[in-house]
Amino acid sequence: MVVIDQEQCIGCGACAKDCPGKAIRLEDEKAQIVRTCIQCGHCVAICPVKAVSIPEYEMEDVEEYVPETFQISPENFLHAIKFRRSIRNFTKEPIEREKLERILKAGRYTATARNLQACTFVLVQERLEEFKLLLWQEMPGIVEKLKESAPVYGKMFGRFYEKWRQNPEDDNLFFNTTSFLVVASENPLDGGLAASNMENMAVAEGGGVLYSGYLMRIISSSETLRSWLEIGEKPVSCCMLLGYPAVSYKRTAPRKEAEILWK
């Protein structure tokens, strides 16, 4: 639960005004918790004297606001978005553990509905070859299953499997990635937002990603794969290939005009 240090509190009321759940109010010129809340942390972030904490969270991870380190110019941010590319050719060098931890932290700090923070992140790197082999072993059963529920995918994945069976080096699903990330969440928007932030962080670390809807459908169709990943019954909201790009792009790619309605 949220804890307010009564000796430290100066009774400014900033936390009470900013609390989205109205769980804080001033009593005797001190902030008091009056009901349970979603622990969004707004009170921690806004308190001018650091009187608020959420002990069950990692409070040592809280950072002070410093404009020079927290602000990104709009021009640079838009350029980064325009310059991103889906990577289908990676180097053999895996992304280092410390960089992967920062990428995952970008997902961890992403907003979630009702602050549930209930995304599960599965980063497969050391056992990637084991997982890939298991997936291809499962593929015939997945293809048969999809022939009934999604025949277009069943036919497509059947071709992928036959191609892989003839030449295991010719992999149309994983390409030559060194890391594979699965995000599972009850709310697909939670997983999607986390994936977007993790992609931006991966690019900032010098890497690149490819979102794979194919792998999402394959994993969702296999209890064996879900069990290996240890995601339980949570729906798969994102599958992402991660690595260092083996290609270098010189400019942004064009896009058609957006359909925007100003009202």
Tell me which oligomeric state these chains represent: single chain
Helix content: 40-55%
Number of domains: 2
As for the CATH topology of the largest domain, it is NADH Oxidase
Task: Please write the string of helix (H) and strand (E) elements.
Answer: EHEEHEHHHEHHEHEHHE
Radius of gyration: 23 Å
Strand order of the largest sheet: 5-6-8-7
Unreliably modeled segments: none
Outline the biggest β-sheet: 4 strands, antiparallel
Task: Provide a descriptive summary of the structure in words.
- The chain has 263 residues and is an alpha+beta fold.
- It is 40% helix and 13% strand.
- Strands 5-6-8-7 form a four-stranded antiparallel beta sheet, sandwiched between helices.
- A hairpin with a 2-residue loop joins strand 2 (24-27) and strand 3.
- Helix 5 packs antiparallel against helix 8 and helix 6 (128-149) packs antiparallel against helix 7.
- The longest helix is centred in the middle third of the chain and has 22 residues, at 128-149.
- The chain starts with a strand and ends in a 20-residue tail after the last strand.
- The relative contact order is 0.14.
Features:
single chain; 263 residues; alpha+beta; Alpha-Beta Plaits; NADH Oxidase; 2 domains; four-stranded antiparallel beta sheet; two-stranded antiparallel sheet; 40% helix; 13% strand
